[in-house]
């Protein structure tokens, strides 16, 4: 998801753009100073510098370092996922694009076919191998999310890697060749062993950790007792609106999906 009026661009830069909004990353961590984006002037020359778009007439660039041994006073490294709420929403959304393009640039320096060095394709978020012509684009991995209702109750589950106490809607990656709808039915059966019907589209969200596109549905329960999938689902239960567990972070589509269901 990008802010309204954002114009995507993609170009490798040798010099910072004047008057640009700069998103700085050391490894995967976003650099922030006092609730705002870290100033490039305080940092060493970036190892990678990309123009990733324009926002409200201002160029947006991403500066990347594999890692920085020491950060200037007042600048701290934050996991992108945990930085929601630390900076304004438009900047956070653009940081998602920045992080994905930086990851693409870093992980596609060499051709997956012949091993030759790739080069950026001008004015396109793409790299091409001059030796064999193989071209690559940033990876976007579709992931399905489904919130299951039974009357007023919601089926929420927790995966072992969730923060303690947090429950969410079911989710899983779409298999090659699979439709979103088929994925919703399959993941629900695999993860909790229940049948669902009446899939209803809710919305989507770019989930830049590292390159997912979350596609969210609501569905009705049909049959089956909850059987959590070993290793994937630590616990899954029906929750009434009056006795909800802790929910995912407000910046996530999971949170919006659950809140919207409660308001209906
Ligand atoms: Zn090649």
From TrEMBL:
Pfam family for this entry, one: NUDIX
Sequence ranges assigned to domain Nudix hydrolase in this UniProt record: 138-261
InterPro entries, sorted: NudC-like_C (IPR049734), NUDIX_hydrolase-like_dom_sf (IPR015797), NUDIX_hydrolase_CS (IPR020084), NUDIX_hydrolase_dom (IPR000086), Znr_NADH_PPase (IPR015376)
Enzyme Commission no: 3.6.1.22
GO molecular function: hydrolase activity; metal ion binding
Organism: Chitiniphilus eburneus
SUPFAM superfamilies listed in its UniProt record: Nudix (SSF55811)
Name the UniProt record assigns to this protein: NAD(+) diphosphatase
PROSITE patterns: NUDIX, NUDIX_BOX
The UniProt record lists the keyword Cell cycle: no
Entry keyword annotation includes Disulfide bond: no
Gene this protein is translated from: nudC
Cofactors named for this entry: Mg(2+)
């Amino acid at each position: 998801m990008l802010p309204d009026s954002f114009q995507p661009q993609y170009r490798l830069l040798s010099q910072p753009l004047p008057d640009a909004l700069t998103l700085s990353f050391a490894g995967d961590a976003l650099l922030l100073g006092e609730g705002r984006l870290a100033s490039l002037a305080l940092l060493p020359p970036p190892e990678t510098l990309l123009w990733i778009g324009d926002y409200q007439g201002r160029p947006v660039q991403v500066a990347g370092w594999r890692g920085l041994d020491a950060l200037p006073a007042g600048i701290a490294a934050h996991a992108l996922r945990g930085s929601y709420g630390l900076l304004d929403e438009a900047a956070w959304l653009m940081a998602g694009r920045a992080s994905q393009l930086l990851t693409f640039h870093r992980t596609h320096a060499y051709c997956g076919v012949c091993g030759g060095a790739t080069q950026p394709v001008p004015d396109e978020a793409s790299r091409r191998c001059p030796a064999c012509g193989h071209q690559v684009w940033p990876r976007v991995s579709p992931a399905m999310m489904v919130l299951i209702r039974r009357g007023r109750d919601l089926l929420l589950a927790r995966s072992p890697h969730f923060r303690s106490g947090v429950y969410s809607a079911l989710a899983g990656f779409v298999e090659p060749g699979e439709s979103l709808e088929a994925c919703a039915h399959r993941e629900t059966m695999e993860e909790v062993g229940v049948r669902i019907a009446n899939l209803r589209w809710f919305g989507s969200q770019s989930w830049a950790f590292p390159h997912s596109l979350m596609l969210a549905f609501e569905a009705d329960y049909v049959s089956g007792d909850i059987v959590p999938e070993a290793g994937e689902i630590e616990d899954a239960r029906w929750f009434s609106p009056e006795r909800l567990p802790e929910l995912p972070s407000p910046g996530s589509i999971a949170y919006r999906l659950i809140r919207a269901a409660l308001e209906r």
